[in-house]
Write a structure and sequence with these properties.
The chain has 763 residues and is α/β, with parallel strands linked by helices. The protein contains 20 helices and 15 strands. The chain has helices at residues 30-39, 41-61, 93-107, 110-120, 136-143, 153-170, 191-248, 259-293, 302-306, 308-330, 336-425, 451-478, 492-495, 558-574, 590-606, 622-627, 667-684, 701-708, 723-734, 752-762, and strands at 66-73, 171-175, 181-188, 434-437, 517-521, 526-527, 549-550, 581-586, 611-615, 637-642, 649-652, 657-660, 689-693, 712-718, 741-747. The strands form three sheets. Strands 5-15-14-8-13-9-12-11-10 form a nine-stranded mixed β-sheet, with helices on both faces. A four-stranded antiparallel β-sheet has the order 2-3-1-4. A hairpin with a 6-residue loop joins strand 10 (637-642) and strand 11 (649-652). Helix 4 packs across helix 6 (153-170). The longest helix is centred in the middle third of the chain and has 90 residues, at 336-425.
Length: 763
């Protein structure tokens, strides 16, 4: 039977004399392996028991170890006892994790471990590389009264370093993920010693942590105190220089401002008042002078109206005028009484004018006095301005001295306050680390594991070693001299194909043919429809011609993958040629070959390729008759491509496939017309792939020439026939063209006769 899991060897059929020279392959299959192991079961079981015993013996000889674990809680946030700490606290999660990891490393630092060695006396413990303090020689010398000299400092240091290295190997620090818990594991050959060392290590670490905090605070206090004396002296010098400069430059005043500034402000205010008084006196004098120059009453000024003397004189003057008017009407102009009254009127008028003159003189004196006062204030203000400018220039240096004194004072106060804080922090323990689980004496050893595990491991390894030995011995000494049982040599008729049936002599120039791909066309991959019943008005639908075709919308299956691989192999063989040509050939009924070719084209069109199908079987013309069958429900859509006859043109379908039917002519003309149609389509560039349905077997001369122009071949083998015989017939008919074979499609669909019977039953 043809084995499709092996490459198809297309060498020349060996002669009868060459056949016995083949050497059978030597290898084990599963049944032989199981049989061999079963035959050697007693020896394998014995080896397994021996391995178990050896493993238990090795386990018993190992020194036991006991591991004690202490749990430590390391909180990086610490306790908030004062407002400002010496070291900043971790704020984010990553920073806290780094702090915890750093503290875990500090647990195994040399300073902590050396204290543990000193407290536990590990430098004298033989387990950690030390001695017991009294050797046999020292004991014997002590009996006779001699004493061995004490070890030197270098020797003691060397012993401590050896104990330190050994203790490091006995300690394991484990940090639990996403927590602040640190596990401290210490192992020893003595369980009590392991627990003691774990607890001593945790207590020493906590003590060392507290001491380091106190030492840091003490060092900070010492540094700050050392600077306080210098800062105090600097502050005193700055304040002294400031006070001396103030005294030298007469910077005297209150807390808010200087006396000179206050005097300048007061003088400015008095000068403004004096200027206002001068203007008022000038206005009063101008008004009096204006009244005197005009014909108006000179007593019509505010001062005259407000003066009681003027008021009394004016009253008398009015009475005298009245009396004069009465006498003028009664007496003659020369009457003595009239003259006396007239004189009285004149005297009163002169008296009033004299009084008004006194008001004018008083206003002039007031104006003079106001001007003199204003001038004196102006002179004093100028002097104060000059003094203020001088003080302003001196104030530049004053402000500089004040800033220096303020800065020195602030620094001194800050250092003094911080020094007091750090001094108090020496006695505070802000660490939040604490022991949450003390180490207890372990009840079980941590190494080696239980003897049952040793026995199981030894049993398994012993059995495997024995089995491997027997298999290797059987393969090396016995397997190469005899053929495998259960495998038979294939006969040359099934294993080797002749390139040409008429060739009588072997041709050494022929090489091996590449193993073709195999696809299986099954009922699960297709759907069956009745011809023309489901046709619509959109054109010819190749899925409704009555043949089993690929299921529409069906997901990617093994068949589609295999057909895609065949097209890829054809593309590799074509070497980048545009529009490669593939031919499907088959033995037996041509309907299965044509149906397979149609499904091959549908699979390529589903992947987006523009496919041209050509019916190359000019005898059967199965595909052409299926497409151009009489009585179809709709006219075909014809294209521009023809095949040697104007009436035979390509048919456009709704499936993205164009079908070129066969022409009614002999084989030679039909093949020549197909070659011309392919060349015409390649030059036009309208298609990506050409699929030939045929030619039919046995191949004629024209059919062979047509196959020589293709890039790849696919064989269609119906499973209703003997596939090996069918394959042999196809290979024999192909001859040298068999090297183009890229795939084999096994047609496992129900034969057409049975399908028609089912259709009748369905009808």
């Amino acid at each position: 039977m043809l084995d499709y899991n092996q490459p198809i060897d297309r060498a020349i059929t060996p002669t009868v004399s060459e056949a016995p020279q083949r050497k059978p392959e030597a290898s084990f299959n599963v049944l032989e392996l199981v049989s061999l192991l079963w035959r050697r079961k007693i020896a394998i079981a014995s080896a397994a028991l021996i391995g178990a015993c050896l493993a238990v013996t090795v386990g018993k000889s190992l020194t036991p170890r006991y591991t004690a674990t202490a749990q430590l809680y390391v909180d990086p946030r610490e306790l908030q006892l004062v407002d400002r700490e010496l070291t900043p606290r971790a704020q984010d999660v990553s920073g806290m994790s780094m702090v915890v990891e750093s503290q875990a490393r500090l647990i195994t630092s040399n300073s902590v471990l050396l204290q543990v060695i000193q407290q536990a006396g590990l430098d004298k413990d033989p387990e950690f590389g030390g001695g017991d303090g009294r050797t046999l020689t020292s004991s014997l010398l002590g009996l006779i009264g001699l004493h061995v000299r004490a070890p030197s400092a270098a020797e003691t240091k060397e012993v401590q370093l050896a104990a330190l290295d050994a203790l490091n190997k006995h300690i394991t620090i484990r940090k639990t993920d996403k927590s602040f818990i640190v596990d401290i594991e210490v192992w020893s050959i003595d369980p009590a010693k392991a627990a003691m060392l774990a607890n001593t290590l945790t207590n020493t670490y906590l003590t060392e942590s507290r001491n380091s905090q106190a030492l840091a605070a003490r060092r900070a206090t010492s540094e700050l105190s050392g600077r306080l004396k210098e800062l105090r002296e600097r502050l005193r010098n700055a304040e002294t220089a400031l006070a001396t400069y103030k005294a030298q430059n007469n910077f005297v005043g209150t807390q808010d401002s200087l006396i000179s500034d206050q005097q300048l402000s007061s003088s400015n205010q008095r000068l403004s008042a004096a200027r206002a008084a001068t203007m008022d006196a000038q206005a009063r004098l101008d008004q009096i002078e204006a009244n005197k120059r005009t014909a108006a009453d000179a007593g019509a000024i505010p001062e005259a109206l407000q003066s009681p003397t003027i008021a009394n004189l004016r009253a008398q003057y009015a009475d005298a005028r009245k009396k004069y008017a009465e006498q003028t009407a009664e007496l003659g102009p020369r009457h003595p009484a009239l003259r006396q009254t007239e004189k009285q009127v004149e005297d009163l008028k002169r008296t009033i004018n004299e009084e008004i003159e006194r008001f004018a003189l008083s206003a002039k004196n007031d104006l003079t006095r106001a001007r003199d006062y204003e001038a004196s204030l102006n002179r004093a203000l100028e002097v104060q301005k000059r003094q203020s400018v001088q003080l302003s220039q001196a104030a530049v240096r004053l402000r500089e001295l004040e800033r220096e004194a303020d800065a020195s004072r602030d620094v001194y106060q800050s250092f003094l306050k911080r020094s007091r804080e750090t001094e108090e922090q020496e006695t505070l323990n802000t660490s939040a680390a604490r022991v949450i689980g003390e180490a207890t004496v372990p009840q079980r050893r941590s190494f080696p594991p239980g003897m049952s595990l040793f026995a199981m491991i030894g049993f398994i390894f012993g059995a495997l070693a024995a089995a491997c030995w027997f298999v290797a011995a059987e393969h090396l000494f016995n397997g190469a001299s005899a053929p495998e049982p259960g495998r038979r040599e294939r006969t040359p008729a099934h294993d080797v194909m002749r390139p040409q049936p008429e060739a009588a002599a072997p041709s050494p120039a022929l090489a091996l043919v590449e193993k073709p791909l195999i696809a299986r066309l099954q009922e699960a991959d297709v759907i069956r429809t009745l011809a023309a019943i489901l046709a619509t008005g959109g054109g010819v639908d190749l899925t409704r011609v009555g043949w089993p075709t690929l299921r529409p919308g069906f997901p990617l299956t093994t068949l589609l993958n295999a057909l895609r691989d065949m097209r890829a192999a054809m593309a590799r063989r074509a070497g980048g040629k545009t529009m490669p040509v593939m031919a499907l050939v088959g033995a037996g009924d041509t309907t299965g070959r044509s149906m397979t070719a149609l499904n091959f084209a549908l699979a390529a069109a589903r992947d987006g390729s523009r496919v041209l199908m050509i019916d190359a079987d000019h005898q059967a013309q199965t595909l052409s008759r299926k497409i151009n069958r009489p009585g179809k429900s709709e006219p075909s859509k014809l294209g521009w491509l023809s095949i040697g006859n104007k009436t035979v043109r390509e048919i456009k379908t709704v499936n993205g496939i164009s079908v070129l039917p066969a022409t009614e002519s002999d084989a030679g003309r039909a093949a020549e017309a197909i070659r011309k149609a392919i060349a015409q389509a390649r030059s036009a560039g309208g298609y990506d792939l050409v699929i030939l349905d045929g030619p039919a077997m046995p191949f004629s001369t024209a059919g062979r020439k047509l196959l020589d122009g293709t890039d790849a071949l696919v064989a269609v083998l119906p499973t209703s026939l003997d596939i090996n015989d069918s394959m042999e017939d196809i290979l024999s008919a192909l001859g040298t063209a068999q090297r183009k074979l890229v795939g084999v499609v096994l047609d496992e669909l129900t034969p057409a006769t049975q399908a028609r019977q089912r259709g009748k039953q369905y009808a």
